[in-house]
Every structure is written in structure tokens, then in C-alpha cells.
Amino acid sequence: MPLPPILPIQPFTRPARGSVILPGSKSLTNRALALAALGNQPVTLSGALFSEDTHLMSDALRALGFEISLNESAREIALRPQPRGYPTQPVDLFVGLAGTAARFLTALCAAAPHGIYRIDGVPQMRKRPMKQLIDALRTLGADIRCTGEEGFFPLEIHARGLRGGAVSLDASESSQLLSALLMVAPLAAAPVEVSLVGSVRWTFVEMTLRLMAEFGISIPRPSANTPFRIAPASYRAQSTYLIEPDATAASYFQALPAVVGGSLDLPGLRPPGQGLQGDSAFIEFLTRSTQRAPGAALTEDFREISDTFLTLAAIAPLLSGPTRITGIAHTRKQETDRVAGMARELQKLGQDVVETEDSLTITPRPLTPDVEIETYGDHRFAMSFAILGCHDLRRDGRPWLSIRNPACCAKTFPAFFDVLATIRTHSQS
Asked: What's the CATH number of domain 6-23+244-427, 3.60.21.10, 3.65.10.10, 3.40.640.10, 1.10.40.30?
């Protein structure tokens, strides 16, 4: 059933209980699709995510000539190499607002042996960082033309492969820029050296490196101030690859018991340090936030797991003291300016919020009811504030918080509100 434009959140009147089957990781699904496409063997992704972002990636690969079979009920995506090589006619690819698809497809098309590829997304995608990746691929021999503003989408790529060589990259705005470059570097005709300029969030880069190793190419992480060195190599994937449950999506259901009480089982979710996803560390941040002494202030650096900072920020009004969240400046250039947006919505709820370029400090105040949360088309605003809305503010089960454009969750978790409603029903039966 389609979601309404404005969705009132029904509070829980009893503690949460039950089990939540999480969707597959978006980050792993789109990386695995890219790596499978760069190889020459059929690959089936088991436990894959089916969402707007992964459909955009699958549709683009199909347009490039790959055979893609989707089995949503079985949560499987099967990819076969192109039977006829890359297309001889120009191909238009649409990436929506999917950052992973945008960066990975740009690199994949630049590394193709031939073809003309036009890549574009929604207006907001035209504002997201691309210049550093474009410049790095050009240095390696790619012919990439920005048909709008230089350094941004839309792009037209006249593929001729990559020659290799030395390149510098500043991936401080998005680690996806480095991940995209590393994934295609082994396809260059000669070795590639990638020197990093500025800082980079290593969590997702480590995910990329570990996934590349599972697809047959190992690249050691260099020591400080030394470049990545990547020799020409071929991907040799296993026939079936199991995608982990999404650790970022898990953050909402880890936070829910902190809001309404109770506990939830999240089968298949790997503990911090045991899987490929750095966002699994959110549970440690949440534990420190909820178990601190009453009234104590707490500072947490979310730089390495910034997709989950909204989860903690949204429930901060219910915590026992001020919460300072740092390391989030780069999230101003994601689906929306997440720092400014979170500050605005919390202030609408009556909270004391201090915003800096790289941080938010949230001091709890009595919550203001009958508020409509603006999501800015950003799925993580919708899901994070939905968890806060589960708090029974009026103590009678009546909704007090509504979410605008809840359907934006389709980007990574289409069934989110159905899952939340199922937990509520189960918990109160």
C-alpha cells in the first residue's frame, strides 16, 4: 500500500519485542554488483538489497549489456558477463541520487575498452562531489567530459580503457571516490599508484578492499604517507556471494528499545569488528549514550560511521544529558545538508541545538508535539525521526509526530514502515 504524503507515527504503548529481518547492505550490494561486472564469471548475490539505489545500479548494468536477473522473494541478484561486449551505440545511464551507483559506474565506464556513456542523476546528484574522481580518472587516461558544470554531473565518457600511472586523490568529501578508483585500478594497462591528499574515512574503504579480496584481488592498505600500489589483475569471483544484513538499517532497530523499552533480535547482524561494515559499531555508541550517568554530557565522533549519526541525534531529546556529535561536516554534501537539516528539525521539536560546521550539540528540552518532520527527500531523516515518534509522549498512544514524504525510504529500505508497524503490533498483542 502506498505511503501517504504525511505519515503520523503511532507510538508504542508497550516495550518492543520480536525479531527483525534486516534488508541486505546497500553498500555491499552495489559494490558487489560493480565487482561482479568487472569480472568475467557469473555471480549470484544472495541476501541482496532490493531498493531504489540497487535497482538503479542493476538497471544501469543491464543497459551496459550485462545479463541481470532479479529474484526479490529469494533476495538474489544474478549477473552474467556481457555476451556481446560493451555496446557500440551511445548509452544513457541514470543514477538518481545514488552516490554508490554514480561513483562506481563513472569509474566502470571510464575503464571500459570502448563506448560512449552519458551519466546523469536528479538535480541534487548534480551537486554531489565528483570532481576528484573525474580528475583522477582523466590522469589515468580517461576521456570524461562534463556537459554541465565542470566537475559535476552530467558526464559523457568516451571510453578507451585506462593506461595506468601515478595519480593523486582527495577523498575527504566522500570515501566513495577512492573506493571507485581502487575497484577499477586493476583493469588499467599498467600499474597504478594512488597517493591520498587530505584525510579519508577508512571504514568504507576497508569494506571495499576486503570485498575486492573476496572477489580475487588483494590490495594492501598502505602505511601513512605512502601510495596504494595496484598491479594489473583480473577479478575471479566465487559463483555465489552472501551479502551481510545492513548495519546502518540495524541502527534504527537498535535504537528503538532505547526509546520504548524492551529488546529486539536482529538475526544475521554481525557484531562490531566481525563483518565488513563499520556501521556495526553504532551499538557501542548507543550503549555509551544510554548508560551514562544522569545529566552527564557526552561527545561522540561519528566520522567513520556518519550514516548513523542521524539515528542518535533524533533520539537525543530522550537521553539523560547533552549529546555532542562530531566528525560530520562531510554529511553536508550527501543527500541533503544533514547537519543543518537535523538542527532545524530538532529545533522544531523544542530542543536546544548548537550547530557548527562539523558538529551538533543537542541538549534535551521538553518535546514539542504536533510537529511535521521535513525529510528533505533523505531516507535517513524519515527513519531516524520515525523511531523518535515511537515514544509515547502523550502517554495515551496518540501520534504526536508526523513524517513528510515517508516514501523516500525506498532509497535503501522500502519496507521500513511496514516492519516498524509489524513490531508495534507484535509488541502490543
From this structure: 3.65.10.10
- Identify the three-state secondary structure at position 326: strand
Give Dmax (Cα) for the chain.
Answer: 67
Per-residue pLDDT of the chain (429 residues; tens, 9 = 90+): 789 999 999 999 999 999 999 999 999 999 999 999 999 899 999 999 999 999 999 999 999 999 999 999 999 999 998 766 788 899 999 999 999 999 999 999 999 999 999 999 999 999 999 999 999 999 999 999 999 999 999 999 999 999 999 999 999 999 999 999 999 999 999 999 999 999 999 999 999 999 999 999 999 999 888 999 999 999 987 899 999 999 999 999 999 999 999 999 999 999 999 999 999 999 999 999 999 999 999 999 999 999 999 999 999 999 999 999 999 999 999 999 999 999 999 999 999 999 999 999 999 999 999 999 999 999 999 999 999 999 999 999 999 999 999 999 999 999 999 999 999 999 988
pTM score, two decimals?
Answer: 0.95
Q: Is the peptide bond before 154 cis (omega within 30 degrees of 0)?
A: yes
CA dihedral 273, 274, 277, 282 (to 10 degrees): -50
Do the domains 26-242 and 6-23+244-427 match in fold? yes
Distance (Å, whole) CA 42 – CA 215: 12
CB atoms within 10 A of CB 201: 20
Q: How far apart are CA 369 and CA 393, in angstroms?
A: 8
Gyration radius from the chain CA atoms: 22
Could you list the active site residues? 307
Of 120, 122, 140, 124, which Cα lies nearest the Cα of 132?
A: 140
**Among 3.40.1360.10, 2.130.10.10, 3.65.10.10, 1.10.10.60, what is the CATH number of 26-242?**
3.65.10.10
**What are the extents of the domains in the chain?**
6-23+244-427, 26-242
